[in-house]
Amino acid sequence: MKEIYVKDVMVPISQYASVSEKASVLDAIRVLESEENKSPEGTYRDRAVLVVNADGEVIGKVSQVDIIRGIEPNYQNIGTDLDLTRLGFSNPFLRSLQDHYKLWERPIEELCRLVNRLKVVDVMYKATDLQHVRGKDTLSTAMHQIIMGRHQSLLVTKGKRVIGILKSTDVFSALCGLLKECRTF
């Protein structure tokens, strides 16, 4: 495979939507909506924002799913870090969890009050080493990491600093470009 490096495909953090660690979940929702409105029709839009500290360092990421999970506090009682469907649990079992933990039974007005008080740091996802890839790594290394971890994106690092984000859609586009260049004999 032609050598393409992560740094050539990533989105630099300066071009990726971000919010302060002090921002509310409502602020993150507004940023996500703003980014959606900026995206040209037919292009992939970002479904997450980076969370940065006062020094501008990335400390986490907030996705649409993180926000949905965060506004229903009873998910904390289940341990939603696991993909229960991959562990073999059935849909009827998952539905029974919804009933047992009384998920989504609160009135919308209560959720509205909660989302105004909730901070992004309360719902953000802190990436582990498995969700980091170096800018100098090859695209094939990143593809393997995305597939094995079932990640939608990876944080790109240079040393200990996050310098960008590598989205699976950008990896897919780069791969498709390479495949279209192939000659069949």
Overall description:
- This protein is an alpha/beta fold.
- It has a single domain (6-71, 118-181), classed as Roll (CBS-domain).
- Helices cover 40% and strands 17% of the residues.
- The chain has helices at residues 6-9, 25-38, 64-70, 91-100, 108-117, 120-123, 139-149, 168-181, and strands at residues 11-12, 18-20, 48-52, 58-63, 132-134, 153-158, 161-167.
- The strands form two sheets. The protein has a four-stranded mixed sheet with strand order 1-7-6-5. Strands 2-3-4 form a three-stranded mixed sheet.
- β3 and β4 (58-63) form a beta hairpin.
- The longest helix has 14 residues, at 25-38.
- It is globular.
- The mean pLDDT is 86.
Mean pLDDT: 86
Structural class: alpha/beta
What is the number of beta strands?
Answer: 7
Main sheet attributes: strand count, strand direction, barrel closure: 4 strands, mixed
Radius of gyration: 19 Å
How large is the share of residues in beta strands? Answer: 15-25%
Q: What is the succession of H and E elements? A: HEEHEEHHHHEHEEH
Number of H- or I-type helical stretches? 8
Low-confidence stretches: none
Q: Helix content range of the residues, please?
A: 40-55%
Terminal-residue CA separation: 17 Å
Strands ordered across the widest β-sheet: 1-7-6-5
Q: Which architecture name does CATH use? A: Roll
CATH class: Alpha Beta
